[in-house]
Amino acid sequence: MIYGITGNTQKEQLWKPVGELIRWMARQGLEVRLHPDVARGLVARGLLSDDEAAALTAHDLAAEVDLLLSFGGDGTLLQSAHLAGRRGTPVLGVNIGRMGFLADVEVEQVREAIRTIEAGDYHLEARMVLEAELEDGPVPELPWALNEFVIDRSGLAGLITIDVTVDGVSLTRYWADGLIFSTPTGSTAYSLSAGGPIVSPECEVVILTPIAPHTLTLRPIVLPASVEIEARVYTGGQPYVLAADGRSQLIHREGQRITIRRAEHTVNLVKLPGQHYFQTLRSKLMWGVR
Amino acid sequence: MIYGITGNTQKEQLWKPVGELIRWMARQGLEVRLHPDVARGLVARGLLSDDEAAALTAHDLAAEVDLLLSFGGDGTLLQSAHLAGRRGTPVLGVNIGRMGFLADVEVEQVREAIRTIEAGDYHLEARMVLEAELEDGPVPELPWALNEFVIDRSGLAGLITIDVTVDGVSLTRYWADGLIFSTPTGSTAYSLSAGGPIVSPECEVVILTPIAPHTLTLRPIVLPASVEIEARVYTGGQPYVLAADGRSQLIHREGQRITIRRAEHTVNLVKLPGQHYFQTLRSKLMWGVR
Amino acid sequence: MIYGITGNTQKEQLWKPVGELIRWMARQGLEVRLHPDVARGLVARGLLSDDEAAALTAHDLAAEVDLLLSFGGDGTLLQSAHLAGRRGTPVLGVNIGRMGFLADVEVEQVREAIRTIEAGDYHLEARMVLEAELEDGPVPELPWALNEFVIDRSGLAGLITIDVTVDGVSLTRYWADGLIFSTPTGSTAYSLSAGGPIVSPECEVVILTPIAPHTLTLRPIVLPASVEIEARVYTGGQPYVLAADGRSQLIHREGQRITIRRAEHTVNLVKLPGQHYFQTLRSKLMWGVR
Amino acid sequence: MIYGITGNTQKEQLWKPVGELIRWMARQGLEVRLHPDVARGLVARGLLSDDEAAALTAHDLAAEVDLLLSFGGDGTLLQSAHLAGRRGTPVLGVNIGRMGFLADVEVEQVREAIRTIEAGDYHLEARMVLEAELEDGPVPELPWALNEFVIDRSGLAGLITIDVTVDGVSLTRYWADGLIFSTPTGSTAYSLSAGGPIVSPECEVVILTPIAPHTLTLRPIVLPASVEIEARVYTGGQPYVLAADGRSQLIHREGQRITIRRAEHTVNLVKLPGQHYFQTLRSKLMWGVR
User: Fold this and answer.
1) Which of 166-205 (C) contact D at CB < 8 A?
2) Which residue of B125, B140, C226, D104 is most buried, as measured by CB atoms within 10 A?
3) What is the ipTM of this complex?
4) Which domains does chain B have, with CATH numbers?
5) A283 contact D CB<8A
6) pLDDT tens-digit series, residues A212-242
7) Which residues touch A159 (CB under 8 Å, ≥6 apart)?
8) Which helix (H) or strand (E) holds B277?
9) Is C66 a catalytic residue?
C-alpha cells in the first residue's frame, strides 16, 4: 500500500504532524508520496531535506498511490476527493481543527489508523456523487460534486426563478435565493442550513432544498438517485452562480439547460472500525444533545 | 377482472355515484362485489334491491376481487389498503371531496378509469409499508402502516423521552411530544406537518420526524428502508400512544422495545396514464403555487 | 426583607442546601418563612427541629414574605409564580439541576445573591402574563399563565380545528395538533419546540404558534400584547386539552369561546447584576454555539 | 388635498388607468401633480398633452402634495415610501398586478378610494422604519428601510461571520449566508422566506432572521424596537452586501461597525375602511388556506 499525503497548506498546524508522520512511516517501511505543495511547505520549514522532497514528491498524486491521507477539515477533504477524481482513489480524512463529518480521524490517531489499515481492518464507503452539465458545454470549474451543486443568485441581484423538471416531468418553479441539489453526504452541509433533512449516506437519493423560497409551501424534496434533473434559471438579465462543493462560477446565459444526474464514479472514503455516522452527527451537530 | 367496491359510508355523496356505477358495470358485463357496509347502505337508500345485494355482497372482499375501488379520501384509502392487507390486492382510490394524495381519480372519471383498466392501460405502484412489533407481543390494532407509525405522548402527559437505535447502533435520544416513523408515501401526511421533507414514493427510505422536539438540533433524518429500528419510550409512569395510519392505541408498559422495520408486503396502488406525483404535489399542497 | 422558601420537594438535592441556608440566614439575622411542604421535608430529614418548623412555617407564604426563593428548575419556578399569584410577590429562581431560563441563580451562589439583594443591588423584571376564560366559566385549574396556554388534541383524537379571531376580526382557521398562545417569557419553552421565534422578554407581544399544522403556510404570528383573542375548537365530538404552564385539563364542550388576553398582573422576577437574557440563551439553548 | 401620482413606469398596464384617473380628477376638481417620469410616459403615449404635462409635473413631488398615490406592487410602494422620505407624506398603494401587502387598493377601485379619502373616511398607519449607519459614514444608497436591512455574502463568497451586540451586550455570532434586520412591515417579505415569524405591524419590535445559518440552534429572535444593534461582518477579505429594501451595495471594509436602530420618522400608509391586515395575510400568503 502506497500512501499519498495532501492537506490544507494554509493551516500552520499541518506541518509538524505531517513531518513526524513521514519519519515514522519511513521507519515502519511504509511507502509515501507527497503532494507538491505539501513537499514544498515541509522543505520551507526545515522538516524535509531537498533530497527527500525530490524522492517523495508525486507528479500525479492520486495516480501514484493506493490511498490518500487528507489532512485538514471537510473543505480539504472535498478538495482531496476532487484530486482523487474519477479514478476513485480511497481517501482518509485526518482532521486538524474542529471535528468534521468527512475528516473523522483525529491527527493524534493517524499512526494507529495506518496500523489498522495495514492490518486490513477497514472498509471503503462508496459515496454517491452528482455531475452537472450546461447546455453550453461542460461545467468548467468542477463538473461533479460530492456534497452539492448550488444555483444561487449573485449577491447584488434579487430573487431568481428556477424551473425544474425531473425525468422530463415538470416538478415546480422555484422563486428563491437559490436551490441546492445535495447528495446524502452533502445533507449535513449547506442543505441542512437551508432547512433540508439529514440523510444517511447509504440512501440512494438526491435532495432538492430551496434557499429562502418566496413561497411558503416549497419544502425540501427527496428524489431517487436515478433521476435526471433539468433546471433553467431566469434572472432578468443578471448572471447567476453555479457552485460545486463550494467552488463558485458565474453563469451568464440565463434560460439555458443545466442537467444534473448521478455520476458513474463514487468517492471512496476509508472507514475504520468504531467510526459511526450517528456518532459523528451527535458530536458534530450536537444533534440531540441537551 | 373482478372489481370490489368499498368506501367511506359516512359520506352521503358516496351513494349515488356508487349506485350508478354498479348499474353501468352490469350493463358493461363487468363483475363487481360490494363491501357489506356498502351493500347495506345502498339497500337502505333504495339504490339496490335485497336480491341484488345478496348476489353482490362479498364475505371477504379483498380475497374475492382482483382490484379494489376505494371511494373516499386518503383516510378511506388507508382503510382500503388495510382491507387488502398482506394479500396485496390492487387498490384504486376514487376521490369524493377534496383531492387526495392517494385517492387521485375523481368520482366523475371513474367509468373512464375502468375502461382504461379493462384496456390494460395501467400500472401498479408497489408502495413500501412499515411493520411494528412490541416487546410484549404484536401490535393489536394495526401491525403495519402505509403512511406512518407515530409514538406520541397522550394528551394530558408532558414530554416523553424516546431512545432510538438503528441496526443496533444508538441513534439519539428524542425529548419531544412524539416521533413519526414515516414511509415515503406518508411523507406528505403527518410527517410534513411536523417539518419533515417530501419524499417521492420510489425512494427506498424511512423518515424519522420528531414532533415539537425540545432540542433545537433534532432535525428530521432519512434512513435506508433496510434498517431495523428499535425505540424505547419513557414517560415517568404515564401511558403513551402508538398510532398506525391514524389509528391510535395506548401502550401502558414504558421502556419496552418497539421494533419497526419494512414489511415484506407492499400496498399496490393502481395508477393510470397521466397521473403524476408531482402534479398531485402542486394541486394538493399548493406546492410552489404563488 | 422577609424571605420565603419554596421548592421542588421531589428532588433529593433540595434538602441539604436549603437546610444550610436557613442556618446561615439565622446567623445573619435574616428573616425566613418556609412553605409547609419544605418545612415537613426538612423535619423528616432531621435538618430542622419540630419547634423550628413550627416557628418558620408560613400559612400563606406569598402573603407573608417580601421575596420568594424558588429552589428547582423552570417548572418549579412556574409553580412558585402561581403561588405568588396576582399579589406579585417577587420571585428569585435558584437552580438545582440543569440551568434554566427562569431559575438562573445557581444553588452555590444563593448566599451571595441574598447579600446582593440585601445591599439593594437588584431589580425586578415585570413579566407579562396571559389569562384565559371559557365561555362556560373560569378556567378551573390555572386561569393565567406565565409561559403559555396550549389548546391541544387529546392523545387518541385526530387533528382539531381552531377558529381564531383577534379583536373581533377573523385571523384564520388552524387545522393542527394544537395551538400555543405564548408570552415572550414562554417563547423559549414549548413555542420554540413547535417552531416559534425567540422573543426577548421586554417585547409587548403574544405569539401564536401552531403545533404540526396540516397547512404548510401557517407560520407563527406575533401580535401586540393588547389584543383580545377568541378561539373556538372543533373536534368532532372528542374532548380536547387546555393547558396553562404545563398543567392540563380536558374541555368537553367543543365550539365554546375561549378568550385569551393579557392579565392585569405581572410575575416579578428578581434579577441580579450580571445576569443577562442573551447569556442565558447561549448557555441554555446552545444558541449560536458551534 | 393635493394628490401626487407616481408608479412603476416599467409596467405597460400603468398608463391607461393613470391617464383616465387624471381626466376624472380634473372633472371632479381635484388637484393632482405627477412624477416627472409618469408625466413623460403619458405624453409619449399621447395620453397627456405637452401643456398639461408642463402644468402638472412636480419638481419635488413629495413636498408638493398631501398624499402620494403609488401605482405598482410592493416594490413600487417601497420606492414611493423612499420618495416620501423623512417628510412622512402619506402613501396609498394602488395595486397593478398581483395583490401586494402594501399596495392593497386595486386599480379598479382607485376612484372609490379617492372619494372615500375626500370624505375623510381613512386613517394613517404609521409604520416603523429602521435606519443604518456605517462606522465609515452614512449608508450611501438607502440610509433607512421600511421592510428590512440585509447583510449578505456576495454571490461568489462563502459563509460570513456576523458578530451582533444589542445595546452594548453581546447577542451571538452568526455564521451564515446573511442576516436580516426586519421591521414588522418587512416580516412578510424576505424575513418570512428565511424562516422568520409573521409580525403584525402594530408590534414595536425588530426581527433578526439568519439566512441559512450553519448552526442549527440559531432561530429568529424578536427584540424591542427601542434597541440599538451593532453588527460587525468578517468575510476573510471579500466584500459583502448591505441591502436596504432590496437595494444592494457592496461594503469593502470588513469588521467595521454597522449600527441599526429605529428611525425617528415613520412611513405613513393610507388605510381605508374594510382593509384588514389578516385578510391580506390570507389572500396574499394563502395563509391558512387549504
Assistant:
1) 166, 169-175, 184, 187, 192, 196-200, 202-205
2) D104
3) 0.94
4) 2-127+266-285 (3.40.50.10330), 130-262 (2.60.200.30)
5) no
6) 998 888 899 999 999 999 999 999 999 999 9
7) A153, A175, A176, A177, A214
8) helix B277-285
9) no
